[in-house]
Amino acid sequence: PHPDVVLIPEHPFKGFALFFGTMMSAVQSIGVIVALENNMKTPAYYRKPCGVFNIGIVFITCLYGFTGLVGYCKYGNATQASITLNLPQDSIVPVLVKITFAFIILFTYPLQFFMPIDILWRNYVRIHVTKSSNKWVYSSLLRAALVILTVLMAFLIPILDLLISTVGAFALPTVGITFPAIMELSVFHKEKRLTSWIFIKCIALIIFGIFSMILCTYVCLFSM
Fold this sequence. Notes:
By secondary structure, the chain is mainly alpha-helical. About 70% of the residues lie in helices and about 0% in strands. The chain contains 9 helices and no strands. The longest helix is centred in the last third of the chain and has 27 residues, at about 195-220. The protein is globular, with a radius of gyration of 21 Å. About 10% of the residues are buried. The model has no long low-confidence stretch (mean pLDDT about 80). It is a multi-pass membrane protein.
């Protein structure tokens, strides 16, 4: 292990807040989840205890945890925001790793960007396009503009890791925890299927989502 590895950091809550925001950004893909479930042949299998969603989340969590643990054990507090920055630059292996990362992003980016582009196109852009022959042009321009914008942000923002943590801590607990719990509570109450267990679960999720959003966002903002 690296000599800088410490089991109990000096500011544990600050580290946890940054970790929480990054973790939420990594595992939360609300648009992909909904789109995938709606396009499955048997959507009921998606949310079973051993369904697609739970198996996928467990696998991703273990993979992220293993990668982070191994990276920290190797480089300690010198670990960069991206582990690829710690790899030696005078070897062919880091180059191959970065090329692999580039291909991973290339093939997964359209999936992650499917819902934002679909929402923007259907609700804001397509209604202003009168000629059907020009729709593919405007659709392509929209996709290209959004991709270029995100790439420029990655290049120009010097503290991208803190930005990701802040966005993850602020937006994703609300979108992924608080709002779904509120909607479930409302739907079950309207359908008169609200039980004590569902009520307690939803209230606990709402409190946790709001509490984590406020505290972790506060810490992330003051870490910039």
